[in-house]
Design brief:
Elements (H helix, E strand, L loop, with lengths): L4 E5 L11 E8 L5 H10 L4 E4 L5 E2 L3 E9 L4 E6 L3 E7 L4 H10 L17 H5 L2 E2 L2 E2 L4 E8 L4 E6 L11 H4 L4 E11 L22 H15 L8 E4 L5 E2 L1 H10 L5 E4 L2 E4 L1 H7 L12 E3 L2 E6 L6 H19 L8 E2 L2
Parallel strand pairs: 2-5, 3-5, 4-19
Antiparallel strand pairs: 1-2, 6-7, 7-12, 8-9, 10-11, 10-12, 13-18, 14-16, 15-16, 17-18
């Protein structure tokens, strides 16, 4: 019998520490529990909302739904050859723990994605990425329960419709509950070091995946606050993509513009835009504001409501649009 509780605080389950209450709440520990959870929700005409680590989420004050916290666990070696391994990892596993474990096994490919908060199941939803690598680069397939059809689906990388910080699971939110993912990793190490802060490692002729992992962890710890001490959701805005013409306009106006090439276009650093707008270290109602060491990170030190979080987000977006004629897109999902 699944233990479904009512009026449960979600504040411990979201990294922004927003005070929120779920009208119904259950922790999913086994896939076989899903039919009972679905039947319970349908009988009460409740929507199902899936919660992972809560690190990329802005919660409403009250969530009128059956919130399913995905705590499925397990790591399995599926197949291997001379050069690669394919592993299947359950959605409730912690992402950073997976990265550390894979390197300890002698497998590389995830080291650039170290210390990204959240669960394995959330990784493909957001198509998490850092330092030149996205999870889509390593992902083989996703095993998910289709809540509309009430059946398990195995979706290939192509079927996941990955884009920059986007996927099928984000655009069709609340349709799929991810059970596990498969990743292909390498037995020999081929570093990805073209991202600025990692380029200094190119001079290390004995470079290992562990070295890249350690450097990424050090960089992230230096500029990102620990959510256990200062509640935050990491990078709060996507880097806007612009055409060559828009890029040239911006670079003429702002010679110190920070950007990255992205195919035929350019990705403008959202953190630079917010910093240039004078909002780094500033805050608004409820103490919600931009972190003093990294303007892209929105912090909630007073554990204020979603109303205050959204209000500050809107203020940042308005200011950036005024100054640069660019629209910032919010990265976390917002539950209303």
């Amino acid at each position: 019998m699944v233990d479904i509780k009512q009026n449960v605080s979600l504040q411990p389950f979201n990294s922004l520490a927003i005070p929120s209450v779920a009208t119904h709440f259950v922790e999913l520990t086994q896939e076989r529990e899903l039919p009972e959870i679905i039947a319970y929700s349908q009988a009460r005409q409740l929507a199902l909302r899936v919660l992972g680590g809560g690190s990329n989420l802005v919660l409403a004050d009250r969530v009128e739904a059956c919130v399913v916290r995905n705590t499925l666990l397990g790591r399995t070696l599926v197949e291997e050859d001379l050069d690669t391994v394919t592993i299947e990892v359950a959605a409730g596993e912690t992402w950073h723990d997976l990265v550390a474990w894979s390197i300890a096994q002698g497998w590389s490919g995830l080291e650039n994605l170290a210390l990204i908060p959240g669960t394995v199941g959330a990784a493909p939803v957001q198509n998490i990425g850092a330092y030149g690598v996205e999870v889509a680069d390593r992902l083989v397939s996703v095993r998910a329960f289709d809540l509309q059809r009430e059946e398990v689906s195995n979706l290939s990388n192509v079927e996941c419709l990955f884009e920059y910080r986007n996927s099928l699971f984000k655009s069709d939110e609340n349709r799929y509950l991810i059970c596990s993912i498969r990743l292909k990793l390498h037995k020999s190490f081929s570093p990805m070091l073209h991202y600025g802060p990692l380029q200094a490692l190119k001079t290390n002729i004995d470079l290992r995946a562990q070295d890249v992992f350690d450097r990424v962890v050090a960089i992230r710890q230096a500029k990102l606050p620990n959510p256990d001490r200062i509640p935050n959701a990491g990078s709060f805005f996507k880097n806007p993509m612009v055409t060559g013409a828009v890029f040239q306009r911006l670079q003429l106006q702002f010679p110190d513009l920070v950007f990255f090439r992205a195919g035929s276009g350019y990705k403008i650093a959202a953190g630079w835009l917010i910093d240039k707008a004078g909002l780094r270290g500033q805050s608004g109602a409820g103490g919600v504001g931009c972190y003093s060491k990294q303007a892209l990170v929105l912090i909630n030190p007073q554990r204020s409501s979603s109303r205050d979080v959204v209000a500050w987000s809107d203020r940042v977006r308005h200011r950036v649009e005024q100054l640069f004629d660019l629209t910032l897109e919010v990265e976390p999902r917002i539950w209303t």
